[in-house]
Amino acid sequence: MGLAVIEPTIAFREALGFHLASDPAVIALVDPENIRAGDFAPDELPAILFGAGNVMMHGRASGPQFVATVLLDLHIWAVEDGLDRAQTIGAACARRLMDWPACDGFSLDQFKHTRTVWPRDPNPEFGHGVLSVEAVIRWSI
Asked: How many CA atoms lie within 13 A of 23 on its CB side?
């Protein structure tokens, strides 16, 4: 599905989901079906959930092109081995995010993994991490 019919965050999220789910190191740790959109701790762990994201529109580029920055958080959740397991998954994701995802219907002008945080969950059995990514995307309608 191209950007002409959906919001930029959704297209970027789909590209990132496919990018992570196509990496053997990531899917060795997380079932690809558990790499998806969601804003709260999932029932099935481990999981990588994409937050809602933010878009900063930059306007038009050359011709019919549009440009925007998309900011997205990837939430990593694990229960087995708690934080250690979440950090292991985070390391695999961070390595994958060194490479730019393939895009369908839009192109990337910039892409980077900007930070990772490991907030303590009130339940010490759970490990939770947040990887933040940022991309400048360009598309035409």
From this structure: 24
CATH architecture of 8-140: 2-Layer Sandwich (3.30)
Closest of 130, 115, 112, 136 to residue 39, by C-alpha: 130
Q: How far apart are CA 75 and CA 118, in angstroms?
A: 10
Neighbours of 91 (CB within 10 A): 14
Q: At what angle do helices 82-96 and 8-21 cross, to 10 degrees?
A: 100
Per-residue pLDDT of the chain (141 residues; tens, 9 = 90+): 454 446 899 999 999 999 999 999 999 999 999 999 986 767 889 999 999 899 999 988 888 889 999 999 999 999 988 889 999 999 999 999 999 999 988 999 999 999 999 998 788 888 999 999 999 999 987
Q: Which residue in this structure is represented by tokens 């490991």?
A: 118
pTM of the model: 0.90
**What is the widest separation between alpha-carbon atoms in the chain?**
53
What would the two tokens of residue 128 be?
Answer: 């939770």
- Residue ranges per domain, the chain? 8-140
